[in-house]
C-alpha cells in the first residue's frame, strides 16, 4: 500500500519546521489510513522543545471531538528534528501508538513512518494534489 499525502499537507509541515529551526514543531495528521488530506499544527508543550515534542492536550482533545462530529480523523502526528535526521528516535518509538503514521521533517527531508510494536517501519508515499 502507498500512502497518499496532499501537497498542501507536506508543504505545511516543511513550512512549520522551517519557521522554527531551533525547536521541534508538531501537529496532527488528518485524513484516512490511505490518504492524509491536511495537517493541524499544534503548540509544542514539551519541557524542552529543543529536543522533544508533546502535542498540546487541548488541541488533541479538540481534534478528537471534531472527528467524532464528522470532521477528518486523526491518523497520526508530525514533528521536526531540528538537529537530526528524518528518522524516528528512541524517544519517538517509546511514545508511538501502534498503527499511527508519523511524519518527521529534518534538514529539508521528510520521513514517513508507521508505528509498529514500539518501533517504526518506513511507509511508501505519493505526493498528491
TrEMBL record:
SUPFAM superfamilies the record matches: JAB1/MPN domain
Keyword Protease: yes
Domain of life: Bacteria
Classification via Pfam families: Prok-JAB (PF14464)
Listed CDD domains: MPN_like
Domain MPN, chain residue ranges per copy: 3-129
Listed InterPro entries: JAB_dom_prok (IPR028090), JAMM/MPN+_dom (IPR000555), MPN (IPR037518), VirAsm_ModProt (IPR051929)
Cross-referenced PROSITE patterns: MPN
Keyword Repeat: no
SMART domains attached to this UniProt entry: JAB_MPN (SM00232)
Record key words, sorted: Hydrolase, Metal-binding, Metalloprotease, Protease, Zinc
Protein name: M67 family metallopeptidase
Amino acid at each position: 500500500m502507498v500512502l497518499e499525502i496532499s501537497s498542501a499537507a507536506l508543504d505545511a509541515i516543511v513550512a512549520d519546521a522551517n519557521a522554527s529551526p531551533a525547536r521541534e514543531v508538531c501537529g496532527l495528521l488528518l485524513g484516512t489510513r490511505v490518504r492524509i488530506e491536511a495537517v493541524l499544527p499544534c503548540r509544542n508543550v514539551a519541557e524542552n522543545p529543543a529536543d522533544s515534542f508533546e502535542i498540546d492536550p487541548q488541541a488533541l482533545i479538540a481534534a478528537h471531538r471534531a472527528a467524532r462530529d464528522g470532521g477528518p480523523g486523526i491518523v497520526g502526528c508530525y514533528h521536526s528534528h531540528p538537529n537530526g535526521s528524518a528518522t524516528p528516535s528512541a524517544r519517538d518509538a517509546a511514545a508511538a501508538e501502534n498503527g499511527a503514521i508519523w511524519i518527521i521533517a529534518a534538514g529539508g527531508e521528510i520521513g514517513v513512518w508507521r508505528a509498529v510494536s514500539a518501533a517504526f517501519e518506513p511507509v511508501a508515499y505519493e505526493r498528491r494534489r
